[in-house]
Amino acid sequence: MIDVQLLRTEIDAVAKRLATRGYVLDVAAFGALEEKRRQVQTATEQLQSQRNALAKQVGQAKAKRDDALAAALMRQGTELGETLKRMEAENTVVQERLREFVSLVPNLLDASVPVGNRPEDAVEQRRWGEPRKFAFRPKDHVDLGATLGGLDFDTAAKLAGARFVVMKGAIARLHRAIAQFMLDTHTAEHGYVEVYAPYIVTGACADGVTSLAKFKGDLFKIEDRDLYLIPTSEYPVTNFVRDTIVPLEQLPLRFACYSPCFRSEAGAAGKDTRGMIRNHQFDKVELVQIVHPAKSYDAHEELTGHAEAILRKLELPHRVVTLCTGDTGFSSAKTYDIEVWLPGQNAYREISSCSNFEAFQARRMQARFRNEKGKPELVHTLNGSGLAVGRTLIAVMENYQRADGGIDIPPALQHYMGGLKVIATSR
RNA sequence: GGAGAGGUGACGGAGCGGUUGAACGUGCCGGUCUCGAAAACCGGAAUACGCGCAAGCGUAUCGUGGGUUCGAAUCCCACCCUCUCCGCCA
Fold first, then answer.
1. What is the per-residue pLDDT across A162-218, written as a single tens digit (0 to 9) for each?
2. Is A75 a known active-site residue?
3. Radius of gyration of chain A from Cα atoms?
4. Whole-number Å distance between alpha carbons of A223 and A215
5. Could you tell me the pTM of the whole model?
6. d(C-alpha A394, C-alpha A349), whole Å
7. Per residue in A12-36, pLDDT tens?
8. Which bases of strand B sit closer than 7 A to a protein CB?
């Protein structure tokens, strides 16, 4: 959530900055709401003050056994009560409306974010590795999976409809190996604490990391309950610190969480209908950091590096881009996407998204720390995929494919595959 | 799922209709004493919001949301959570 004080004091500057996102801040609407709020809140508090004073007088009158005075004061209180009740109800409505307005405003972007409104306006930061030159025409993961019998979309469709996958045999094991490898790397080499968390969270938690009102269509909801399947473990893990004040010396908190992710609108745009690039269910190892505000941009660079390290160890060519203003997510102040090379598509495709949310999520969650002066202050939160497991599987399959349709196992994963070096075709 | 107990400040723990933002203790910060420290003593200390240039004043907050009342941490209702016992279960 954006700081309301900022809207009150510098709304024109805020509107200008938000415009680079393509977001139109309704300055007039906010002004009107704010004016109304000020008026109603002040009136309400004055009435409450009168009621409190009156009640106190009743108590004093009763202590002096002045029943006549007490009765008169109580009659006054009854009258006041009715006016107050109406005013309080109005106040609740106005406050709620204002809260709603503010909670729908996206985060302010960092000054370093490139201006643009199309995905192609992302700015490349660096590249690692050279796409392999194939002596044959490389297949995509769907064909490779069909040949190996390891990816079965037909059976998945029978079970749950489109955009799911069934994995079998060595491919299923490779999928598991990749997740284990990522988790081990982040905990052993990058200083993250492995966590296991619920795959279902409350609406309040969802609203803590983004705007639930705005994005609930992307989520699977549990019927008749205020509970949602997580679209990423960012949801439960970042909320570890909701409504808490973290001691200064405990920062930074670093968590790595392996979980399935469920996304309802995964295919709404009609993109990537083939294969398992974009499914309703996929696994991901998520990195989450809770940090001191002064250190969040350093942490952002580090976290992105931790995600990249996985691709370097797997020797998968990739690049890092900074998303442009129009393409950066609602809660984020700055986002790096890591894109891996997919020979089957002859393109770099997103495999990780690493964001600094500054205090935007912390304000929604009321996640604070006790600062150097002993005062509570909002933390900064970050997260990034480290990495999406299914897409990493695709990248390994496509980049390590052999002319005969088999898959070489990257050296870093062989240990996790019981020493296996190749997934061979059975035909 | 059934039966019972309970949710109060950093923590422990009182309060069970009136001047209680909340006794008391521990912890924390400042001071006195001391060569220094401990002990003892004195003092201070919640969060959010509103109005105000400021000093300051006001409002809200005792799990959450409603209700009763002139007045609710205290009474009533619903929900959530924790603990104990029973049942069921990977």
1. 899 999 999 999 999 999 999 999 999 999 999 999 999 999 999 999 999 899 889
2. no
3. 27
4. 17
5. 0.93
6. 11
7. 999 999 999 999 999 999 999 999 9
8. 10, 18-19, 47-51, 58-60, 66, 69-71
CA dihedral A28, A34, A40, A42 (to 10 degrees): -140
A249: annotated active-site residue: no
Judged by C1' against the alpha carbon of A5, the nearest nucleotide is B49
Residue A168 CA to residue A152 CA, distance in Å, equals: 8
pLDDT at A322 over 90: yes
A341-357: b or e for each residue (b if 16 or more CB lie within 10 Å)? bbbbbeebbbbbbbbbb
| A263 flagged as catalytic | yes
Residue A126: active-site member = no
**Residue in this structure with the two tokens 């297949």, named with its chain if needed:** A139
Nucleotide nearest to A370 (CA to C1'): B10
Residue A381 amino acid letter: T
Q: Which nucleotide is nearest to A77 (CA to C1')?
A: B70
Q: For the residues A352-372, what does the mean pLDDT come to?
A: 92
Share of chain A above pLDDT 90, in %: 73
Which of A132, A350, A370, A402 is an active site residue? A350
> Number of C-alpha atoms within 13 angstroms, CB side, residue A190?
29
